[in-house]
From TrEMBL:
It comes from the Bacteria. The keyword DNA-binding applies. ATP binds at residues 629-636. Keywords: ATP-binding, DNA damage, DNA repair, DNA-binding, Nucleotide-binding. Residues 703-719 form the DNA mismatch repair proteins mutS family domain. This protein is involved in the repair of mismatches in DNA. It is possible that it carries out the mismatch recognition step. This protein has a weak ATPase activity. Belongs to the DNA mismatch repair MutS family. This is DNA mismatch repair protein MutS. The lineage of its organism: Bacteria, Pseudomonadati, Pseudomonadota, Alphaproteobacteria, Rhodobacterales. GO terms for biological process: mismatch repair.
Length: 880
């Protein structure tokens, strides 16, 4: 059997692929990206496309599949979401250029980019309203640090941290990809897997702090990192790893990054992953954004404003001055509704400046990105005209000041660009007429070639005095001048023969050319390509002008986002009837008429009013509320709304309440709901205990703790003991402000023993054996949990409900009559008889004269007088 011969093209493919063994290789072949071997098999399955074959290798067919270049972004997004990385191999020359090296030469190809979850920049691959972070975690001796960057916006941050804080910080940032030293990958793989983050191990050299310093200084063109502040070796290692990875994935075309900002953990509220999940801050428990707090409060109209809102909500501030500055901006827009309305209209037309700048910096932009900068600056100019910095609070005045100073650039872009440019530079047509004389001439030749030739024909007719002279074209001669044979002598004699050069004679015509016609022919034939080349040159010029002002443009983008957020929160406050909270530095936490923003909006859609409630955890003697009452009464809603109001206040937003005084909290912990973790072998109760342990081990005296039903996942006495001891620990050791909901009514006795504990309950009423939830939180303790009534509301069979009442009555009677043990009581009940007891029939509904009377009435036949009489009859019948 003949040995397989590897073709030059396949040899090139295998060589390129060897450099990217862990990525799918998109190998450019004309208008398609082709994939071969195992890459093809994996991609075909992931993308649900046909798998074919091309040639043989080692006696086996070579699997192949491909995707069109023009729609490759959609396929890239699918592959990235399914956990793949893609190396994009482009043709580095044209086939014509390759043939110059020999007729069988293979077109040169190379990888121009490695596409990974954290390095996306294309508009179609990103959520415009969310950051796409690439993070790096570094450990140097006893120090650790986390750095993160969004290359689509240029945001670059770093913070020192304890290694145990990795999980909470990943929950806050939700990066798409995390870089980690390969020697510690196994130590943190489980932590990272909890968040669905793509984990990328790098060699120790990428995290070397000395090399990292050199990379950072080279990137920012500075002599020393001291220009940006003082960083630990771990912070430098984390930042340097990001820059090294970007250099690898972007093939040397580094994105436009802002100078790194150092964050301090003590400047923001610390919120762990379980609390974020329980409170549904940015994602609902179902996994989507709908139903989350972020979804309920997001009224921003720009992508940058939406991203700023998510950052603020994920990282509420602890600095009172910062919080009050943000609140003052919202207050100003609430007070000046006409200005706020006009600002929002202008902001709606602001494009995503940050991402347009980033794409321009790494050569993945197009004419529309140029137009985005122009349109953004146009709106910034319009907004500036509406605002007077003298009348604005500091935050808005500072933002307004950053909108100016772009007159020259805006004038250039206005003059250079058409109103609606095409998507791609190669499409041409984005430079406005009149901006460049040479381009206008090329376009005229391209678009009006016939008119130009006709004008030349008229000129030649006048010059020669031959009205019948023609300019024609064929594939052999190109453009030529033709006259009949009767004019031959005139054209071949002086002075015309000096200008008109004879080219061909036919039976009845003579054909000539002139230098200017030959030149015009060349210009016409090349006009399209020439026009596109000129536009590309002008594109590069405009891009350079923009990037030269990138720092100022970034400040403008940030200012527009700040204005968007202030006006959005003002619009929310007005529409939802929210109030400005009072922020203090003590342990105050007083909320009057508080409401849950997500639940309230949901109830409103159903036409149901939300019952507001007060809360007061302002220190001795009531910094802990022990909340009892039945399920479905609203305990969990009350707990969550108190936490959410506190977070909204420290974010710098008005809050859903009549009034609120918030002493800043340092940490927020929430243990609400039941869930298991089967992958780690953790039961619901174990998960509950792990999260409770984390709270008791970390909460300080400025924390706010929300606990719901601690101890319910085990035996009654075990659960009561754990809940009892947990509450005592919060009171005596943590000394945190807390809301503690429980069904263990025995715990209400603690209010009389612990000075900072106060009982509260959710009011209910009973009517004919049913429970009516009033959703009103009042001081005091519940006498029971109304579980059987709730079970009936849930739809349990009537026989089951009746039997449950019977058992409950027996147990309660035994307890009242001398503390008889449950086992003795159960032995007296026919619970385990050989034959199961007959189903207990549901009690027949009592006769009601009022209902009988109502059945006889047709409301459409009643006059107002009849209706009034009927009311009196119904009232009398109801007394019978």
């Amino acid at each position: 059997m003949a040995k397989d011969t590897v073709t030059p093209m396949m040899a090139q493919y295998l060589e390129i692929k060897s450099g990217y063994p862990d990525a799918l290789l998109f190998y450019r072949m004309g208008d398609f990206y082709e994939l071969f071997f195992d890459d093809a098999v994996a991609a075909a399955e992931a993308l649900d496309i046909a798998l074919t074959k091309r040639g043989k290798h080692l006696g086996e067919d070579i699997p192949m599949c491909g995707v069109p270049v023009h729609s490759a972004e959609n396929y890239l997004l699918t592959l990235i979401r399914k956990g793949f990385r893609v190396a994009v191999g482009e043709q580095m020359e044209s086939p014509e250029e390759a043939k110059k090296r020999g007729s069988k030469s293979v077109v040169a190809r190379d990888v121009v980019r490695l596409v990974t979850p954290g390095t996306l920049t294309e508009e179609s691959l990103l959520d415009a309203r969310r950051h796409n972070y690439l993070a790096a975690f570094a450990v140097v001796r006893d120090d650790a640090a986390l750095a993160w960057v969004d290359i689509s916006t240029g945001a670059f941050h770093v913070m020192p941290m304890a290694t145990v804080r990795l999980g909470p910080e990943l929950a806050r940032l939700a990066p798409s990809e995390l870089l980690i030293p390969d020697e510690i990958e196994r130590d943190y793989a489980e932590t990272v897997s909890d968040f669905g983050i793509s984990l990328t191990p790098l060699s120790r050299g990428s995290f070397d702090s000395t090399s990292a310093t050199d990379r950072l200084c080279a990137l920012f063109k500075i002599a020393s990192l001291d220009a940006f502040g003082t960083f630990t070796r771990a912070e430098i290692a984390a930042m340097g790893a990001i820059v090294d990875y970007l250099d690898i994935t972007q093939k040397g075309k580094l994105p436009l990054l802002r100078k790194p900002l150092r964050e301090a953990s003590d400047r923001t509220v610390q919120i762990d992953a379980a609390t974020r999940r329980n409170l549904e801050l940015t994602h609902a428990l179902s996994g989507g954004r709908a139903g989350s707090l972020l979804s309920a409060i997001d009224r921003t109209v720009t992508p940058g404003g939406a991203r700023l809102l998510e950052r603020r909500l994920s990282s509420p501030s602890r600095d009172i001055t910062t919080i009050n500055d943000r609140l003052a901006a919202v207050d100003a827009m609430v007070a000046d509704r006409p200005t706020a309305k006009s600002l929002r209209e202008a902001l709606r037309r602001v494009p995503d400046l940050d991402r347009a700048l980033s794409r321009l910096a790494i050569d993945r932009a197009g004419p529309r990105d140029l137009a985005a900068i122009r349109n953004g600056l146009t709106q910034a100019e319009a907004i500036t005209a509406q605002l007077s910095t003298a009348d604005l609070p500091p935050l808005m005045a500072q933002a307004t000041g950053a909108l100016t100073g772009h007159d020259d650039l805006l004038s250039l872009l206005d003059a250079a660009l058409v109103a609606e440019p095409p998507l791609l530079t190669r499409d041409g047509g984005f430079i406005a007429p009149g901006f460049d004389t040479e381009l206008d001439e090329s376009r005229q030749l391209r678009d009006e070639g016939r008119g130009v030739i006709a004008a030349m024909q008229t000129e030649y007719a006048d010059l020669t005095g031959i009205p019948s002279i023609k300019i024609k074209h064929n594939n052999v001669l190109g453009y030529f001048i033709e006259v009949t044979a009767t004019h031959a002598d005139k054209m071949l004699s002086e002075p015309l023969n000096e200008r008109f050069k004879h080219r061909q004679t036919t039976a009845n015509q003579l054909r000539f050319t002139t230098p200017e016609l030959s030149e015009m022919e060349t210009r016409i034939l090349n006009a399209g390509g020439r026009a596109l080349d000129i536009e590309k040159r002008l594109y590069d010029r405009l891009k350079s002008e923009i990037l030269a002002r990138s720092s100022d443009l970034t400040d403008t983008a940030r200012a527009l986002s700040e204005l968007d957020l202030a006006t959005a929160l003002a619009d929310l406050s007005i529409a939802e009837n929210w109030c400005r909270p009072k922020i203090t530095d003590d342990r105050a936490l007083r909320i009057t008429g508080g409401r849950h923003p997500v639940v309230e909006q949901s109830l409103r859609r159903d036409g149901t009013p939300f019952i507001a409630n007060d809360a007061d955890l302002s220190g001795d003697p009531s910094s802990i509320w022990l909340l009892t009452g039945p399920n479905m009464a609203g305990k969990s809603t009350f707990l969550r709304q108190t936490a959410l109001i506190t977070l909204l206040a420290q974010m710098g937003s008005h809050v859903p309440a009549e009034s609120a005084e918030i002493g800043t909290i340092s940490q927020l912990f929430s243990r609400v709901g039941a869930s298991d973790d089967l992958a780690r072998g953790r039961s619901t109760f174990m998960v509950e205990m792990v999260e409770t342990a984390a709270i008791l081990n970390q909460a300080d005296d400025r924390a706010l703790v929300i606990l719901d039903e601690i101890g319910r996942g085990t035996a009654t006495y075990d659960g009561l003991s754990i809940a009892w001891a947990t509450l005592e620990h919060l009171h005596e050791v943590n000394r945190s402000r807390a809301l503690f909901a429980t069904h263990y009514h025995e715990m209400t006795q603690l209010a009389g023993k612990l000075p900072c504990v106060e009982n509260a309950t959710v009011a209910v009423r009973e009517h004919d054996g049913d429970v009516i939830f009033l959703h009103e939180v009042i001081r005091g303790a519940a006498d029971r949990s109304y579980g059987v009534q709730v079970a009936r509301l849930a739809g349990l069979p009537d026989s089951v409900v009746a039997r449950a009442r019977e058992v409950l009555d027996a147990l309660e009677k035994g307890d009242r009559e001398g503390g008889q043990k449950p086992k003795a009581i159960i032995d007296d009940l026919p619970l385990f008889a050989a034959a199961p007891p007959a189903p207990v029939a549901a009690p027949a509904p009592a006769a009601s004269p009022a209902l009988d009377l109502l059945d006889q009435v047709n409301p459409d036949d009643l006059t107002p007088r009849d209706a009034l009489d009927m009311l009196y009859k119904l009232k009398a019948a109801s007394r019978q």
